[in-house]
Design a protein that fits this description.
single chain, 191 residues, alpha+beta, five-stranded mixed β-sheet, two-stranded antiparallel ribbon, 5 helices, 18% helix
Amino acid sequence: KGAENSSSSKNVESSSSSKNVESSSSFEISGHYDCSVYKCVTTEYLNQEMLAAGKYGELLDVRDSQVYRTIQIGEQVWMAQNLNFRYTQPTADEDSSSFCCEGDSTSCAKFGRLYMWSATMDSVGMYSENGKGCGYGLTCSPNNPVQGLCPMGWHVPDTSEWRVLTEYVGGYEVAGKKLKSLGKWFNDLNG
């Protein structure tokens, strides 16, 4: 797997980290983490019926002890929540490479962080070497799969993985609406 191609500097979300089910046995994708010990990400925006039925797995990001829900869609396992890992590597233009929407820290707690492409790819090679040197506006050939800033055992999905997901949920015309949350969207454009 590899990196989704993007030229956007601040709108890349790593919530789409994925892994194939076949390779998931070597990393924790389900379990239960005590929220009094770990920082559990809010489940307010998840499908509450699926949550109550235990359809979500859990992922612990050991770097900051945050727990995220995961979901199997077809043969793939995806993060069901946006990553909220504070990536602080500076760039030439910014003092950090990850941001809260509109600079509001409560937005990060609710919706996760926004990442520059260089952060998504971990262009400095802080967590893996596969995306090193792949910053915004640079031409690079990452070694796939690219962990980037994803938690250990996860990676930034490549175009073929996005295609598999999109086709599984019914194609490009309906995928966006089917995959987004059931509430809280502007103008009630809920999934």
